[in-house]
Amino acid sequence: MRPGRKWKSNGYDAGRDGFIDLMELKLMMEKLGAPQTHLGLKSMIKEVDEDFDGKLSFREFLLIFHKAAAGELQEDSGLMALAKLSEINVALEGVKGAKNFFEAKVQALSSASKFEAELKAEQDERKREEEERRLRQAAFQELKANFST
CA 20 to 30 Å from 32, out of 20, 54, 141, 147? Predict the structure, then answer.
C-alpha cells in the first residue's frame, strides 16, 4: 500500500482498500445526482491522480476542493460538480473538517438510501399482494364459470 492517509470506510469504498476507484466514483456521482460518462469519470480521476494509480486517495480527494477554491477546475467539469455538491471549504475547515464533512455527507446519503430502499420494499410488497389478489379472483371466476355451465 502506498504511503499517505487512508480513508475510513465511507460507503463508497466498496473494495475497502482505502481508495475510490472508477466504479466507486461512478456510484458516488450517481448518488450525488451528477452522473458522469465513463470518459468523464476517467478524466476526473486523471485530473487529481498524483501518483497515476487510477484511483483516488483521501489526499487526492481533498485536492479536488483545493483546485476548486483556487479556480483551477473547469466550470462544467465533473470535479467542479462534485466540489459544488459537497460544499466544503477545505482552506477554512482544514483537512480534518473536510474529512468529517465528507464522512457525514456519506452517512446522510446512506441513510437516505436506506429510507428509499424501505419505501421501495413496501411498494413492491403492495404490488405483490395486489397481484396475488388478482390471481385469486381470476381463479375464483374460472371455478365459478365451470359450475355455472
Answer: 54
Q: What is the C-alpha R_g of the chain? A: 24
Residue 145 to residue 41: CA distance in whole angstroms: 61
* Set of cell numbers at residue 54: 487510477
What lies within 8 Å, CB to CB, of 67 at 6+ separation is: 47, 48, 73, 79, 83
Give the integer Cα–Cα distance in Å for 11 and 146: 57
Q: For residue 61, what are the CA distances in angstroms to 13, 113, 116?
A: 13, 23, 27
d(CA 26, CA 130): 36
Task: Give the pLDDT confidence of 66-86 residue by residue, as tens digits.
Answer: 888 788 888 888 888 887 776
